[in-house]
Every structure is written in C-alpha cells, then in structure tokens.
Amino acid sequence: MLSGSPTKYAVALFSGFQALDVFGPLDALNILSASTPLGLYILSTTLSPVSTIPVKDPIPGFIGQSVVPTHTYQDAPSDIEVLLVPGGQGTRDPELTQPVVDFIASSFPKLRYLLTVCTGSAVAARAGVLDGRNATSNKLAFDWVMSNGPNVNWIRHARWVQDGNIWTSSGVSAGIDMIYAFIADQYGQELADSIATISEYSRSTDPTNDPFSGPA
Amino acid sequence: MLSGSPTKYAVALFSGFQALDVFGPLDALNILSASTPLGLYILSTTLSPVSTIPVKDPIPGFIGQSVVPTHTYQDAPSDIEVLLVPGGQGTRDPELTQPVVDFIASSFPKLRYLLTVCTGSAVAARAGVLDGRNATSNKLAFDWVMSNGPNVNWIRHARWVQDGNIWTSSGVSAGIDMIYAFIADQYGQELADSIATISEYSRSTDPTNDPFSGPA
Hints:
Chain A is built from 6 helices and 11 strands. By secondary structure, chain A is α/β, with parallel strands linked by helices.
C-alpha cells in the first residue's frame, strides 16, 4: 500500500439507487479490504433499510433489494475520506435526493475524494461541487444530467473522468472500471490487477474508451 | 416476452456471500423487471439482514454490506421458478451453508432453472444436483470446488456452462455475462442487448471465452 492511501469510505444511499452502481465498486473494495484494512460507512436519511425500488410511483412487478445503512447523513462520522455517490431512478426525484445534495455540499471540503457513478454526478452537480470541473455520466440520461449542472464541463465520450479529486463514471457498469482505476491510482496497479483477477473481471483501463456514447 | 418465460426468482443468501455474485445478476433482473414484471424472494436462515462478511473469523478491517431477506428457507414460497446461488467466503463453511444445500436439494425437483455464480456451484454440488452434469466455477478455487462434487463433470475453461436447466458461471463478474445469456435465452436477444446498453455493459456472449483459466 502506498503511504497516505485512503482507508475511510462512505456510500450515499437513497431510495431508488441502482444496485450495481453501489455493489460494482463496493465488491472490489470489499476484496481490497482483505489485504488493506478499510472502514465503510453506509449513509441514508434514516437507519431503515434502503431499497433499490424508488419510493414514489414504483412500477408494478419491479423487483429490488434493501441494504442496511450504518449511519444517517446527520450523524455521519467526520473522518470520511472517500464518498461514493451512486445513480439510479431515485436521482430523478429532487426532493428525495436533497439530503444527499446537502451532505455532499457540506462534506466535500473535508473529503479527499468524491466518486460518482451513473446519474450520481447529477446529484453531485446540484451540490455545486462539479462547477468548473470535467465530469461524465450515464449516456442515456446525459442531457437531463447536464441540466442539473450548467456550469460543469460535461464530457459525453468517456468511460470515466478524473478531474483532481473528483472521479465521475458513465452509466452503471462503468463504475466498476472507475473503481479499478481508482484502486490502481491509490493502492498500486498490481493490487488492482490482483483484485480484477480474483473477480475474473476484464477491466477497461482506458477512460476514453466508451463504446456507449457513439462516435467521439 | 416469449411465452412461458420464468417470472418468479429467488436468491439463496448466507453470511459471507460475495456481493457482486448477487448484485451483478440481480441488477440486470431489476432492469428487466421494469418491462417484464417479476417476483423476487430473498432467502436466508432467518429474516435478519445477511452480511457479505463471514460470521466466523472475519478479517479485521474487512468491510461489507448487509441485505434484508424476504423469506426464510423454511418458509420459502413454493412457486420459485429460478433459484440463484452465489459464491463467496461463506461457501467455505460447510455448517453455515448446510441450510442452503438442504434447500437446493429439496427445491430442485420443482425448479425450472438453477443458476450458480462462482463457488455457488460447490454448494449446489453438495446438494447432489450437479451429479452427471457439466458445470464450472471460480478459477482460483477450482480444485477445492471439484472436491465438493466428485461426480460432476467440471469444466475449467468456461465463462459459464449451461447443461439442461442448470447454469453455472465462473468467478464473481462471470455471473453478469451468464445472466445476460440467460435473459437472452428466456426473454430474447433484443431485450438482453437493451439491458446491457442501459447498464453500459460490454457483455461477453461466448461461454467458452474464458480469459482466466489459462490456455484451453
């Protein structure tokens, strides 16, 4: 492990989060933590389980899963170094995600890194922390995402984008490639490759290789 | 949707399951359910949240997440059509996974499909349902997995294997490619491709393309 690599992670949940946006990155971090001890806080507005099914107007027959938070946004520990913000249908509900927006805005100055997956970058944009930065998002929701951050330099053709201490990924599965790049950057290429082998994952190491945005 | 495609799914959880083994496939099924109404039962020995961290001898600093079950193995609904069995460190604990083994053995005759990811095939092998069938598993744990099913025709070089109504995948992320193949088989290629595009996932459509087992 490189000196000074982060060890305290948090994930910002809300009703209607996308499961793979969260568990793609977290599964790699779970494996990382077997050799590099980490801490993980799972944040929500309350300590009740948080479902991937949006609370408002759920589609009949839409299935989902519920995850147990460890802390509320109000009582979140102050030593968070890396905050992960997923996307999902819930991001389309401004009222529902306002506590996440507020938490990003208030915690960002103390964070070492902010990571978003999919439409999580729309939530971060609303917090103002992406203003003047390069960022990307889900390709099918890109125009809507851009409307959430008119002062952000949105980059459509990207698997993920790093701008300083902010990493944003494209839709859903792109978060997996981003977290491997983040792990390589923070803990070394060898460890990232080892976790990918354990996961039998053929990771994309080129952030500009985006098969889903059409011609560059 | 093709006539007769399954709609009732269950996932068999146990302490120390691998997060991505579960949420890779389930995220694709979640998206599928937005256009094709599904049911999902999340099974465990009790209704308490189930952690990805093994109960026995957890590594200090090992992080994890907890998922809320909907039913116990004892009270599982009788209309399950597809059972998904993940792998993970918990599969190394025979006592812990015995309820899963028992449930697979008792429910298999009524199932339409059994799907396993990673070392989930070792659990299915212990239930005897893989005897005489082709199956695969995690590459790094392959020899141990084989010891759990001496009468199984284990296939090392495979991303996933279908033998009749049993689908088994290689380690962790291979479950994602397998579920897309299963969705294509059951609900049509077009829908599988559409879900992969929504997920921005470049799926492998060749079950024999296994970059992690060494030369074929």
